[in-house]
Amino acid sequence: MIRNRKILALEIVGTIFIIFVGTALHFTYALSGNNLIVGSFSAVNESVWEHLKLPFWPSLLWMLIELYPLRKIVSNFFAAKVIGTIIMVVLIPTVFYSYTAFTEEILAVDIATFMIAVIIGQIVSYKLFKQGQTSKTTETIAIITIASLAVIFIAFTFYPPHLPIFQDSTTGQYGP
Question: What is the pLDDT of residues 111-138, one digit of tens each?
Fold first, then answer.
């Protein structure tokens, strides 16, 4: 019981942390004077891709913060957190492209989508924590997956493919 309360409390705090830090990351690149190092972790333009950094990097940071208190309690830590993070990153463009197929972009919907995606991702992580064991191979695959995603996010910041998801909706440009 105490174990479940501790995990739940950490996931609730994590949800607030991810939303707060993710919101800040929307503005940090401009506030840094367009510093490219900051741009690796912040939205450098108004493309859908760059907005996926807003849940991704805070989730990764929270994962590292949460690892210490949960390492002995949860055996499927990385698998659960990576699945939750991937859900966040997949939900945002899914909702965005679904609703903008019928109407113009609505800022309030985009903000709500971000928050709801974070909440759902954190709930999924929590539910998976409670399911128990995964193999060391599964945990290793999860670590490789999240590390690969981090590299992809940084690489595509500076070398974005010329696809709509990478195009700045205000300037039509790609990258910083």
Answer: 999 999 999 999 999 999 888 778 889 9
CA distance 142 to 136: 10
Tokens of 174: 């790609």
Identify the burial level of 10 via C-beta atoms within 10 angstroms of its C-beta, where 0-12 means exposed, 13-18 middle and 19 or more buried. Answer: buried
Q: What pTM, to 2 d.p., does this model score? A: 0.91
Quickly tell me which residue has 């999240």 as its tokens. 146
Where are the domains positioned within the chain?
A: 2-166
> Tokens at residue 40, please?
């690796």
**Alpha-carbon 104 to chain mean position:** 24
Chain center to CA of 33? 24
Q: Which two tokens stand for residue 73?
A: 């309690």
